[in-house]
Amino acid sequence: MSDKIKVGILGATGAVGQRFVQLLAGHPWFEIAALTASDRSAGKTYSEACSWLLRGGMPAAVTDMSLIPTEASAIPEDVRLLFSALPGGKAGAVEEELAVAGFAVSSNASAHRMDPDVPLLIPDVNPDHTALIRVQQARRGWRGFIVTNPNCSATHLVCALKPLHDAFGLTAVNVVTMQAISGAGYPGVASLDILDNVIPYIGGEEEKIESEPRKLLGTLSADGVAPADIVISAQANRVAVRNGHLEAVSVKLKRFASLEEVAAAFTGYRSEPQRLGLPSAPDPAIILHPEVDRPQPRLDRLAGNGMATSVGRLRPDALLDYKFLVLGHNTIRGASGGALLNAELLYVQGYLAA
Ligand SMILES: NC(=O)c1ccc[n+]([C@@H]2O[C@H](COP(=O)([O-])OP(=O)(O)OC[C@H]3O[C@@H](n4cnc5c(N)ncnc54)[C@H](OP(=O)(O)O)[C@@H]3O)[C@@H](O)[C@H]2O)c1
Fold first, then answer.
1. What is the structure's pLDDT at 27?
2. Integer distance in angstroms from the first to the last C-alpha of the chain?
3. Ligand 1 surroundings by CB, under 6 angstroms
4. Structure confidence at residue 222 (pLDDT)
5. Which terminus of the chain, N or C, has less C-beta within 10 A?
């Protein structure tokens, strides 16, 4: 019998849920034991209900698994960890119900990200924020808990900002995103809206990109996180790219740094996932491109198996101090891969012990 930790995926048939299935196939520590979806799909097998979108085909281990309803009473008791790929509106109450029932929930959804006692986590950035789990359990009386990963654009933005914030301090960030269609889930944006087009609005996105980095880069105290004192301005656009969000970023630093020092901060950055050797951790986590026309979504989104953040076109900025491009995979590191890396950190830190 396998001694791997049994895990479930909530919303397993969607764009992010399928990535969870793909990334968990053959994982050294976790094994899929439950898949949930909406009432429309519950009772069907995974292959009947799921229109598989990813290269490499559906893993054989899940094709005949029955989808179960997304509720605590339906999930087998030996499942310890649940990855949530539920739509935002559904996630809030269901994830709470599951944490009350004793499950550890690693969520992609935005519902609980900004709750003061819920860790908003990137293991490369703020691995110490998992300490909020015990605050959350004590305050709410839960046996289980919820941790969240950030919005997909905020994830790669903050992975790139962290070395600069550590080395020089940040006071202001301006970011303009060019976000892939898969960020809208499946079937996502209608082809007649996005082909030959750029849509200069993504509902709720700019607010998330402006607020989540301040919590991620904030300072942990006994009862929460004091947000980092950084002014962030974001403009979000949807572009006709399948996967990979590109972001044009300008930053103002607290103290002077030369171009060489900024470049060295990116290339020299190592953090907890690399030190711990977490199975999904990219090494390096940040790739700095010297070419004038990189990073590009088609060429660079799968760097580090989709877990790395690519940075390029680093140069001085006439308005702030420096500007550069950031690129990252939105459904891997920006969603399922990020939640999986969070779970790997929780495992090593002892939060998934039976
Ligand atoms: N796409 C991205 O790049 C990305 C990045 C970061 C975060 N996220 C977040 O991740 C979550 C999932 O996004 P997605 O793109 O995978 O969405 P999606 O493709 O629309 O998939 C939604 C999943 O949730 C299930 N579902 C829908 N309504 C439900 C209900 N009432 N009860 C239970 N299950 C229900 C669906 O099952 P059925 O097949 O039965 O309908 C499906 O499995 C969202 O919160 C999103 O904001 C997405």
1. 97
2. 17
3. 11-17, 37-38, 40-41, 70, 85-88, 90-91, 108-109, 152, 182-183, 185-186, 330-331, 334-335
4. 83
5. N
